[in-house]
Specification:
By secondary structure, the protein is mainly β. Helix content is about 10%, strand content about 40%. The chain is globular, with a radius of gyration of 30 Å. The termini are far apart.
C-alpha cells in the first residue's frame, strides 16, 4: 500500500463552500458594527402630493388645484379702482359632514402655506411681529351662504394673499413655489350630551399632525 492510500472506513472532509453573496453580507455587517453598530432608517415624513392630487383630511377631501399671481382691483365692487397684484390659491374641497362647515375650519387645517424654507403667508404666531401678508378666503360657488362649505358637495375655495406693505413701501415679492402642509381632523362625541365636534389630530410633540405635504408652482397670469 502506498502512502496515498486511504484507510478503509475513513472519509476525507470536503471543504465547506460559502456563497460569495453571503460573505459580502457578513463583511458589510462587520464593517457597520465597527463603525458604531446597526443604525435604524430615518423616520419617513408626511406623504408628498402634487397639485391636483387628492388629500384625505377625514372631514374634507381636498385637492390643491394651483396658485397664480394676477392683477385685481383694490375695490372688488369698483372695477375701475387701482389694481394690485394678489396670489390666488385655488382648492377643490369635498365636505364629508352631513351639515355645512365654516371655511375657517378648512383654513385651520392648512397648517403651513409658505415658500420653501420661507416665512408663512398666513398669520404669524403671537409675539413674532406684524404679518407680512394678509389673506382672505371665499367660496364663489352658487347658492353658498357666506363662508360655509355645503355638506356632501365639492366646492371651489379661493384664498387670496396680498403683501401687507405700509404707505410708500414695496410689498414683499411673491414666491415661485408654495409648500403647503395639511392637517386632518378626528371626530369626538360627548358621552353625556351626545354632542359631536371635530378636532385637529396632534402628533407626539403636541403640534397638529401633517397628513400630507403639497408642493405647488406659482404661475404668473398673462
Amino acid at each position: 500500500m502506498t502512502s496515498s492510500t486511504v484507510r478503509r472506513g475513513s472519509r476525507r472532509r470536503r471543504p465547506v463552500l460559502v456563497p460569495a453573496v453571503l460573505l459580502l453580507a457578513l463583511a458589510g455587517v462587520g464593517a457597520t458594527a465597527a463603525l458604531g453598530g446597526l443604525r435604524q432608517a430615518p423616520p419617513e415624513g408626511p406623504p408628498q402630493r402634487r397639485a391636483g392630487e387628492e388629500v384625505d383630511q377625514d372631514l374634507f377631501r381636498t385637492k390643491v388645484e394651483g396658485a397664480v399671481v394676477r392683477s385685481m382691483p383694490t375695490d372688488p365692487d369698483d372695477p375701475d379702482s387701482p389694481k394690485e397684484s394678489v396670489l390666488e390659491l385655488s382648492l377643490k374641497v369635498y365636505n364629508e359632514a352631513m351639515n355645512s362647515v365654516p371655511l375657517q375650519t378648512l383654513e385651520d387645517a392648512l397648517l403651513r402655506v409658505a415658500p420653501p424654507q420661507g416665512e408663512p403667508l398666513t398669520d404669524p404666531p403671537a409675539g413674532q411681529g406684524a404679518a407680512k401678508w394678509r389673506h382672505g378666503g371665499s367660496i364663489p360657488g352658487e347658492g353658498v351662504p357666506g363662508r360655509l362649505l355645503p355638506p356632501r358637495r365639492t366646492s371651489t375655495v379661493l384664498l387670496r394673499f396680498r403683501g401687507n406693505a405700509g404707505p410708500g413701501a414695496q410689498p414683499p415679492p411673491f414666491p415661485d413655489v408654495l409648500d403647503i402642509d395639511l392637517g386632518h381632523y378626528e371626530n369626538h362625541e360627548d358621552a353625556l350630551t351626545g354632542r359631536h365636534w371635530t378636532q385637529l389630530v396632534n402628533g407626539d410633540d403636541g403640534m397638529p399632525e401633517v397628513v400630507a405635504h403639497v408642493t405647488v408652482p406659482v404661475r404668473k397670469a398673462v
